[in-house]
Amino acid sequence: MDTLETVSAGKGEPVPQQLRVLFNRPDDVKVQKLPCALPDEDSLAEHFAAGSRTVPHTHHNGQHLVIMDSVGVVADDTGVHVVRAWDLLSSPPGGWHWHGAAPDSATTHVTVEQPGDFDLAVERRDRDTAYAPEHGT
Questions:
Q1: Which single residue of 31, 34, 68, 116 has CA 20 to 30 Å from 16?
Q2: Residue 33, Cβ neighbours under 10 Å: how many?
Q3: Angle 97-112-1 (CA atoms, 0-180°, nearest 5)?
Q4: 129 falls in which pLDDT band (50, 70, 90)?
Q5: What are the C-alpha distances in Å from 133 to residues 32, 59, 99?
Q6: What average pLDDT does this structure show over 106-122?
């Protein structure tokens, strides 16, 4: 093992300008680039304030999420799912989804995916209006 980094809630930097479109409330999200020795893969910790999340999107090559703490939500074609610390999710290539914090709980998750591999040109539907984006997407 060549590199090691600890993930802790609240750590991280503001969302970079080129990624702000990926979040419903980018000012309520922090990102932390993590070491990743896997070829062609990248890893981030994403720290979400209560109620913040990504907008619907896909990854051409899929994505893994590891929920690190608290309670979060993930939506896919089958509905909205409550997730908890140490849940592991794997979105298949091209799988429609969004993910983030529950309305009343901040959360952190770690992503593993190919850098820049997300597509926002997807249907902006939601399975549960309690988790709908704030600006009509």
A1: 68
A2: 13
A3: 165
A4: very low
A5: 23, 19, 11
A6: 93
pLDDT at 133 over 50: no
Beta strand residue intervals within the chain, DSSP E: 13-14, 29-34, 42-48, 63-76, 79-84, 88-91, 98-101, 107-113
* Locus of tokens 């979060």: 72
Q: Which two tokens stand for residue 130?
A: 């309690």
- Taking alpha carbons only, the member of 63, 97, 92 closest to residue 80 is 97
Alpha-carbon span 20 to 91, nearest angstrom: 21
Place of tokens 């959360």: 107
- Whole-number average pLDDT of the chain: 88
Lowest mean pLDDT among 2-11, 57-66, 79-88, 108-117: 2-11
